Amino acid sequence: MDSRTEPAEPEPAAARRRPSPQHTATRPPIIRELLLVVGLFVLYKFGRQLATGHTAEAFRNADQVWDWERALHLPGESIVQGALLHGDTLVHLANTYYATVHFPATVAFLVWMYLRRPVHYVWARRVLAVVTAAALVLHLTFPLAPPRLLAATGLIDTGRVYGPTVYGAHPASDEIANQFAAMPSLHFGWALMVAIGLIAATRSRWRWLWLLHPLLTLLVIVGTANHYWLDAIVATALLGITLAVIHLPHRTRTTAGRAQELVAGEVGDAKESVPELVGAGR
């Protein structure tokens, strides 16, 4: 009887593969997240309404912002609006984009991150919450009439003239939205964070195209005369400061990255499974 013990069968490579940390990370409880996000949004909408009624101050600040932009030699917002007004279709599309893309795109971004990149989701949600809170403080302390309401700009309210619009005809008594909360532009700030978040959480060679979203948003908010250039600049500064404080998690390993690890692991397994030839080295 052979007393030699047969070597144990090597463990299959698949059993030793480590799943990506993004897929093993524990997602926050969905009910808690829904309550948190909805609660923050309601608090923000309520807070914005507290800034209504400061009509005189909002127009004084608008005159000041307009003068600042001229002192900084920023291009006139009329350049973008003039391009949109070449055709009714283009300006209508810009108004539709302004009215319908901002919030749904951000929600879709958070849902995708929650389902596919839970670690990055927590980071992105925190960043958006801090930026939005900082924006609310500015809305309360620096009410600002948008350029479409300031006669000195020479711009028209494209939403009211061409439609669709999300604002009431009388800004001072608008119960749907605070029209004197132009600075900073959360339309641009959120769009920029969506692009940054998706670039950080993916490895596709095409991921940089997500920057087209904030770029298009910038052209839309300026061309429709809903925001000044400075509104977007301030939003960018707030986001930059927030990102410097709330650090990015480790980069996500995508399928391509995991495939490379798998190939390397299988090569190593193959080397281990080759039997040693007795005397081969002699």
Radius of gyration: 27 Å
Kindly report how far apart the N and C termini lie. 30 Å
> Tell me, what's the shape?
globular
User: How many strands?
Assistant: 0
Please, how many helices? 13
- Taken as a percent bin, the fraction of beta residues is under 5%
What structural class do you assign from the helix and strand content? Answer: mainly alpha
Fraction in helix:
55-70%
How would you characterize the largest beta sheet? Answer: none
- Low-pLDDT segments: 252-282
Average of the residue pLDDT scores: 81
Order of helices and strands: HHHHHHHHHHHHH
Gist?
The protein has 282 residues and is mainly α. The chain has helices at 13-16, 21-24, 30-49, 55-71, 77-84, 88-100, 102-116, 118-141, 158-162, 186-201, 212-223, 229-245, 255-273.
Question: Please, could you describe this protein's structure?
Answer:
This protein is mostly helical. It has 13 helices and no strands. It has helices at 13-16, 21-24, 30-49, 55-71, 77-84, 88-100, 102-116, 118-141, 158-162, 186-201, 212-223, 229-245, 255-273. The longest helix has 24 residues, at 118-141. The model is unreliable at 252-282 (pLDDT under 50).
Helix-strand blueprint:
Layout lengths: L12 H4 L4 H4 L5 H20 L5 H17 L5 H8 L3 H13 L1 H15 L1 H24 L16 H5 L23 H16 L10 H12 L5 H17 L9 H19 L9
Helix pairs in contact: 3-8, 5-11, 6-11, 7-8, 7-10, 8-10, 8-12, 10-11, 10-12
From the structure above, extract its key features.
disordered C terminus; globular; 282 residues; single chain; mainly alpha; 13 helices
